[in-house]
Amino acid sequence: MYMLLNLAVGDAGSWPGATDATTPAEGHMLIDSVRAYARNPGVVADVQDASPVPGGHDPAGSNASVQAATPSQGLASTSGVPTAEGSHVTAVYRFFDTRTGDHFYTNSTAEKAQILQTLPWFTYEGTPWATPTPGADTIDVFRFFDTGTNAHFFTTSVGERDQIIRTAPSYKYEGVAFEAYADAGAPGTVTLERFFNTKTGQHHFAGNAEETAGINQGAAGPGWIDEGKGFTVHAPGDGMLFA
Predict the structure, then answer these.
(1) At residue 55, what are phi and psi to the nearest 5 degrees?
(2) Buried b vs exposed e over 85-108: b needs ≥16 C-beta within 10 Å?
(3) What's the rounded mean pLDDT across residues 15-37?
């Protein structure tokens, strides 16, 4: 695949308008990286990235973008590995953004490595849980980036996804992040508790009862509202094997 990056200067009737005597004779376009997306937002695409540096955050679905000072929007495909229960799961990596206080989750080893190499304000917190490989018993987890808070949001609700796309322009849809279990009672699983902070506009997903209780009791600070069950993932355990 080849990409053509055009340094357009506009023409009459379009932004920024036609050139005139004040237009510089030459211009320069500094590109940090270029990212390609699958046309179908429901397909998790393999991407190739250059080294990112701080910048803006481009909505997913664009043909190309300048890389942002946030985790990559390209959601790289991953393959599951077997567990002791016989299912196939993929490790999820959790980061803490020390600038915003937001937690970020990805099951892409490439994205994990990219963050570790280029975003020093992201603190790696390990693997809190895992996601199943796609199947008849799984559902999509959709990922958004909120340009207002520089935080990510995850939901399995198609209705909520579509409502956000229609009514919340600051939320940029980034496609399917990973899978979750359709059955909250499946063996070896944990259902994450979803919280919303009325002061910061951020969401958080608690991975166990102790964390949920702590947030509800104010251990994470003021403003957190318990929104109920988020989505169901594979619980961490000794039987979980990762390459």
Answers:
(1) -175, -145
(2) eebbbbbbbbbebeebebbbbbbb
(3) 61
125 — pLDDT class (breaks 50, 70, 90)? very high
How many CB atoms within 10 Å of residue 223?
14
In three-state secondary structure terms, 216 is: helix
Tracing tokens 């199943």 back to the chain, one arrives at: 132
Q: Where are the domains of the chain?
A: 81-234
Can you point out the beta strands (E) in the chain? 81-82, 88-97, 103-106, 122-124, 129-132, 138-146, 151-155, 171-181, 189-197, 203-206, 224-234
CB atoms within 10 A of CB 188: 19
Rg of the chain over CA atoms, in angstroms?
20
d(CA 194, CA 184): 14
Cα–Cα distance measured from residue 95 to residue 97, given in angstroms and rounded to the nearest whole number: 6
What's the per-residue H, E or C state across 133-166?
CCCCCEEEEEEEEECCCCEEEEECCHHHHHHHHH
- The reported pLDDT for the residue numbered 222 is 94
Choose among 11, 12, 80: nearest CA to 233. 80
| Among the listed residues 227, 232, 224, the one whose alpha carbon sits nearest the alpha carbon of residue 201 | 224
pLDDT in tens, 3-25: 666 666 655 554 456 666 666 66
Distance CA 22, CA 153 (A): 44
Q: How far apart are the first and last CA of the chain?
A: 30
